[in-house]
Automatic annotation (TrEMBL):
Residues 7-194 form the DH domain. Residues 237-261, 272-292 have a biased composition (Basic and acidic residues). Residues 237-292 are annotated as: Disordered. This is Protein ect2.
Length: 292
């Protein structure tokens, strides 16, 4: 039973991980493209008209909020993990908004076509290129953000099916997830029709590469930690060596100090002895003179 729970947790983490990437992608679309374009609409510096913006970014803000909430719920679930946790209600909420989701995913297809047409628009090209060079974008183009938007539902379905496989058929979530997967699959096949299979392969391939990048990053971080520990050990060893050298030097200094003190003492003693001897000689001399 513990093994099953661990597997369910692992599959849920995958859904969380890719949903987080998706939500970040949506936020970038809103903040870097939608809002600046909307702000310039119907002004002298207009790049796209209000209608064009609404066509390209249909339901973007609403969908961003929807998936941000979905992400928060999954994150909370993972942080407060309990035996036989229930995730089904969150997918049920998505299912109830399926028409909005379908409308948004359809608009991304239109958006890519529209962006192709806008390539000849110099003002728009300058605008998008400037954003692409923004460090936040990491070199991603406007088109790539919409492609990622298209990929996500395929990836969600992919990992949800994996979660379903490790969920007991008696579990309350099982039936809900089955219904959601069927509904999602049906709508995606309608949206992409003959391109459905190729789009699915493209999406899964992209996110598997992303998984690999994340794993490599984790391994790199672990290597950095290991190197850091090794460096700390080397530093500690060096410090210990320096401390020992300092101690040795201190001992030598103390010994030298004692030797110098002894020499000084002997010198003083000899000086006193010489002085006494001189005094004795002088006294003897005086006595001899007196006797004469």
């Amino acid at each position: 039973m513990q093994v099953i729970e661990t597997l369910r947790q692992k599959k849920t983490k995958k859904i969380y991980q890719h949903t987080r990437n998706y939500v970040n992608n949506l936020y970038l679309l809103v903040n870097l493209y939608y809002r600046p374009l909307e702000k310039k609409a119907n002004t002298k510096s207009q790049i796209l008209s209000k209608n064009e913006i609404e066509e390209i970014f249909e339901n973007l803000k609403q969908i961003t909020i929807l998936f941000a909430e979905f992400l928060y719920n999954i994150e909370y679930l993972l942080l407060t993990w309990e035996k036989d946790y229930k995730i089904g209600e969150y997918f049920l909420h998505l299912k109830n908004r399926m028409q909005d989701l379908v409308s948004f995913w359809k608009s991304s297809i239109f958006a890519l076509k529209k962006l192709k047409e806008l390539e000849s628009n110099q003002t728009f090209s300058i605008f998008t290129e400037k954003i692409k060079n923004n460090l936040i974008c990491e070199g991603n183009s406007f088109e790539e953000y919409f492609l990622l938007t298209q990929y996500y539902p395929f990836v969600l379905k992919h990992y949800l099916k994996k979660l379903l496989l490790v969920t007991d058929t008696d579990h309350p979530d099982h039936q809900i997830m089955e219904i959601f997967i069927k509904d999602l699959n049906l709508n995606l096949s309608k949206i992409y029709s003959e391109n459905y299979k190729s789009k699915k392969i493209e999406a899964i391939s992209h996110f598997k590469n992303l998984d690999l990048q994340i794993e490599n990053k984790i391994n790199l971080d672990l290597d950095l930690v290991q190197n850091s520990k090794e460096n700390e050990i080397q530093i500690d060893e060096k410090e210990n060596k320096n401390d020992k050298q300092k101690e040795k030097k201190q001992v030598i200094n103390e010994e030298n100090k004692k030797i110098n003190e002894n020499l000084e003492e002997n010198e003083n003693q000899n000086e006193n002895e010489n002085k006494n001897e001189s005094e004795n000689l002088e006294e003897n001399k005086n006595q001899n003179e007196n006797q004469k």
